[in-house]
Design a protein that fits this description.
Elements (H helix, E strand, L loop, with lengths): L18 H12 L8 H30 L3 E5 L9 H7 L3 H11 L3 H5 L11 H15 L4 E6 L7 E5 L2 E5 L12 E2 L5 E5 L2 E5 L2 E5 L4 E13 L6 E10 L5 H6 L5 E2 L2 H6 L15 H25 L6 H4 E6 L6 H12 L4 H11 E4 L10 E3 H7 L1 H21 L4 H7 L2 E2 L5 E3 H7 L3 E4 L2 H11 L1 H6 L4 E3 L6 H7 L2 H11 L20 H26 L8 E6 L8 H17 L8 E6 L7 H18 L2 H4 L2 E6 L4 H10 L2 E4 L11 H7 L3 E4 L5 H8 L5 E2 L4 H7 L5 H7 L1 H11 L12 H8 L7 H20 L1 H13 L6 H13 L8
Parallel strand pairs: 1-2, 1-12, 2-10, 9-11, 12-13, 13-17, 17-18, 19-20, 19-22, 20-21, 22-23, 23-24
Antiparallel strand pairs: 3-4, 5-9, 6-9, 7-8, 9-10, 14-16, 15-16
Bound molecules: ligand 26Q.
Length: 817
């Protein structure tokens, strides 16, 4: 098990494709003849056949971990944006040649089969995709690692653009049986709540004083490591109340009642949108506790199967909490250790802290979760008691450390004593764990200095930085086979599992024939993307243009509006000067806005109208286009990122914790136009600032500028800025409703432009011009693209996971260098 053989990256050799299993599944599961099978039938049969190959390895991975008595890492996350499984598993099992031959033998169109699989939207964006990349890397590195999440029946909404506006459609990704999941009813767990509740016309109504019980049903998904010898597990919990133990209920072992099944199921019905300023939804509170309660019950049960001694818990178990969303784990683990295991407080506290670690992903203070004490009183009275005790002991310590400083006590307290008392979940996470990490250097620095200065001063040894990473297997090998082949021909295929591998590309930046190969691969990827876009949305793109892409959630701080403003400026320049020769550009946007986030939705509408206006303008449309790619998710990213020439990473400095799309674009040879924010700073350090297009205020400059910042100064002193805002305000982009985009102008000029768009607009336009000039020199452009790919090694999730393994978890993997 897990022995690496020397014939190539990963371990075992390629997996042959299981024809006989496929035939069997078609006949036995679907009862159709091969000729009569639908594409969906075929997809399911292919997936099941591959799962049959995976199944014994999945079991033997688990067995090997058990035999080794290995310490396990558990990743608790409300989101796992795993992407489609079939193509990924074919890649990681190295079954690609067998798969191609299989499709030829059976007369199947591989793309049509792969397209049958829904892309599970079990996350909003970066935080959820990071969780999925971490699982991929843990399995590839042979690290005993399990993901725990929720099996939302509806993932993030499907985005449709109608008349330029975002329309949200439900995502019923489980409408058909999912061949990748295995239900494990025998391992379901009970979750006990202090009160009961019911759904009344979609609103949660509490029934006080009647404790209740939910059941968590686990569904396991295989996580195939590259090479196919390690198969780890992602365990997703679904809430039900069916088939609780009625014998025990009737014996009176339960104080309380089961929640009615329909209501119980609402707990894992939908994923909440990432609207970082909206808080206080009771169902989200229940979801978070439900994830934690199910997962900890499971972790403890697994631990107890082989361990008699509770004191060994931190030697066998490392639990990573993905943001405040999972910090209910602190009181819940204490409850288990004190109430169920019967340990005294000090021992339980020591074990809890040594087992838990917490990752923060945000610098927006309004996004740090706080939950009303009232809800704890109702649903989780025992956990609240525990939180009070934790807080009391912690504050006693603070007072010993800084006598007389009651203001400090107020600031660091886990309980916020405002009109409505609330539990500060970030404080709970920091106090109750041994490690707190930010996700890029600048982020960790700001976390310590700006967001949590007091706690960082109290626990300096707990704070550390681990820069995010992305899976080069999904985002390069799988998504961009043309470029992957070019790289492999040049330097061998070690880069697939060995992050050092990319480095040896750097000298090839000077090799004109290698540059030609890379340029050709980019052109191929563009054609593939353009063809896909036309087929799926009907939108046409000219392949002989710069593809300039901003793909990410819509958020004011990410400044899609800044991108739109410079497009308006460019539009005006082109209109006024028909002779102006600039490299032709297609500006691509992709991303969803939380359904309640009106400004973000208005920005989406503006971008679409801007695109439509330009497309109607004969003097401009051959030189500039704006295209909105709908329904951004993992599958869309796999098409869009390989095709892009420019990666837009233009957040207000000091707001993007890390960013991860920046890394995916870099790996695919796009050049970054960006601010010095998040991990972009580290990317620039690795490849040299001169190989990116950096612009704008730095985070410290943002802080200095803000107090005296007057956006109107830019309006009054910069003619192009003024003309652009006037044009938007005039109703030019929405003649039938001239006031439509007025609120965007107000945001910038009247309401203070909180994200400093206008402060950065000039320098943004300048670097964009510089990028355009460089693009005209294809050799120079491709040289830089290669240097960026060569610098991508450190931004692999393999590196990130190895750092977590060594610095936080204390686990090892059979494939760790
Ligand atoms: C919270 C409470 C209630 C409802 C929803 C939420 C919620 C959901 C999702 C809050 C935040 C999120 C998502 C955050 C996120 O994706 N953060 C990103 O994490 C990436 C991985 O570390 C970073 O690269 C990005 O910089 C960061 O924005």
């Amino acid at each position: 098990m897990n022995e690496r053989n020397q014939s190539g990256p990963g371990s075992s050799e390629a997996t042959p494709f299981p024809d006989a299993l496929y035939d069997g599944h078609l006949t036995l599961d679907h009862v159709v003849s091969p000729g009569g099978a639908s594409s969906r039938d075929r997809y399911e049969a292919v997936a099941r056949a591959l799962r049959d190959v995976v199944a014994p390895r999945w079991l033997s991975t688990e067995r090997a971990y058990q035999e080794r008595g290995a310490k396990q890492a558990y990743y608790l996350s409300m989101e796992f944006l795993i992407g489609r499984a079939l193509a990924n598993n074919i890649t990681n099992l190295r079954a690609e040649p067998g798969w191609a031959a299989f499709c030829r033998r059976h007369g199947l169109d591989p793309l049509e089969i792969l397209d049958q699989e829904p892309d599970p939207g079990l996350g909003n964006g970066g935080l959820g995709r990071l969780a999925a990349c971490m699982l991929d890397s843990m399995a590839t590195l042979g690290i005993p690692g399990t993901g725990y999440g929720l099996r939302y029946r509806e993932g993030v909404f499907r985005q449709v653009i109608k008349d330029g506006e975002q329309v949200e459609r439900p995502d019923h990704w489980l409408a058909r049986p999912d061949p990748w999941e295995v239900a494990r009813p025998a391992e379901s767990v009970e979750v006990h709540l202090g009160c009961s509740f019911e759904m009344d016309k979609g609103v949660l109504r509490l029934i006080h004083g009647r404790p209740s019980i939910l059941k968590g049903m686990p569904y396991d998904r295989p996580i195939v490591g590259f090479g196919g010898s390690t198969i780890n597990t992602l365990r997703l919990w679904a809430a039900t109340s069916e088939a609780l133990d009625f014998v025990r209920i009737s014996r009176g072992d339960f104080v309380g009642a089961q929640v009615d099944p329909i209501t119980a199921e609402t707990v894992t019905l939908v994923l909440y949108p990432d609207d970082r300023s909206v808080r206080g939804r009771a169902l989200r509170f229940l979801q978070e506790y439900f994830l934690v309660a199910c997962s900890l019950a499971d972790i403890v049960r697994r631990f107890r199967r082989t361990q008699g001694d509770w004191l060994a818990l931190p030697d066998k178990v490392a639990i990573q909490l993905n943001d405040t969303h999972a910090t209910f784990a602190v009181p819940e683990l204490m409850r288990i250790l004190v109430d169920e295991a019967g340990l005294d407080w000090e021992a339980a506290w020591d074990l809890t802290r040594r087992s838990l670690a917490f990752t923060n992903h945000t610098l927006l203070t309004e996004a740090l979760e706080r939950w009303p004490v009232r809800w704890f009183e109702l649903f989780l009275p025992r956990q609240l008691e525990i939180i009070y005790e934790i807080n009391q002991r912690f504050l006693d310590e603070v007072r010993r450390h800084s006598p007389g400083d009651e203001a400090l006590v107020d600031r660091v307290s886990i309980i916020e004593e405002k009109s409505e008392r609330q539990v500060r979940m970030a404080h709970l996470g920091i106090v109750g764990s041994h490690s707190v990490n930010g996700v890029a250097e600048v982020h960790t620095g700001l976390l310590k200095s700006r967001v949590m200065p007091d706690l960082a001063a109290l626990f300096p040894e707990r704070f550390q930085s681990i820069t995010n990473g992305v899976s080069q297997r999904r985002f390069l090998l799988l998504a961009n086979p043309g470029l992957a082949a070019v790289i492999t021909r040049a330097i061998g295929d070690q880069w697939i599992v060995n992050l050092q591998g990319f480095g040896s590309l750097a000298p090839l930046a000077g090799d004109s024939s290698f540059r030609a190969d890379v340029a050709r691969a980019k052109q191929q990827a563009k054609l593939r993307f353009i063809d896909w876009l036309r087929r799926t949305t009907g939108q046409q793109i000219d392949p002989d243009t710069i593809l300039d892409t901003q793909a990410k959630r819509f958020h004011e701080y990410k400044r899609q509006l800044l991108n739109a403003l410079r497009i308006v400026i460019l539009y005006q320049r082109l209109r006024e000067n028909p002779e102006l020769q600039l490299p032709r550009r297609t500006c691509l946007f992709a991303g969803k806005a939380a359904s309640g986030y009106q400004v973000a939705k208005l920005i989406i509408q503006f971008i679409n109208r801007l695109g439509a206006t330009i497309a109607r303008e004969p003097s401009v449309r051959d030189r500039l286009a704006v295209v909105f790619v709908p329904d951004y998710g993992v599958s869309v990213a796999e098409h869009l990122i390989p095709a892009s020439d420019i990666s837009e990473q233009i957040s207000t400095a000091g707001f993007e914790a890390s960013g991860t799309s920046n890394m995916k674009f870099m790996m695919n040879g796009a050049l970054t136009v960006g601010t010095r924010d998040g991990a972009t700073i580290e990317m620039a350090r690795v490849v040299g600032e001169e190989n990116l297009f950096l612009f704008g205020l730095t985070a410290p400059q943002v802080d200095e500028t803000r107090p005296a910042y007057d956006p109107r100064w830019h309006y009054e002193n910069e003619p192009e800025t003024r003309a652009a805002l006037d044009l938007i305000g005039s109703g030019h982009f929405s003649p039938e409703d001239p006031g439509l985009f007025g609120p965007l102008v107000d945001l910038l000029l009247r309401d203070g432009d909180y994200y400093l768009h206008l402060a950065d607009l000039r320098s943004y336009c300048e670097v964009q011009e510089e990028a355009g000039r460089l693009y005209a020199d294809q050799a120079a452009w491709t040289r830089r693209a290669i240097l960026n790919i060569a610098g991508a090694g450190p931004f692999s999730s393999d590196r990130a996971v190895m750092e977590y393994a060594r610095r936080i978890w204390g686990v090892t993997g059979s494939g760790m260098a």
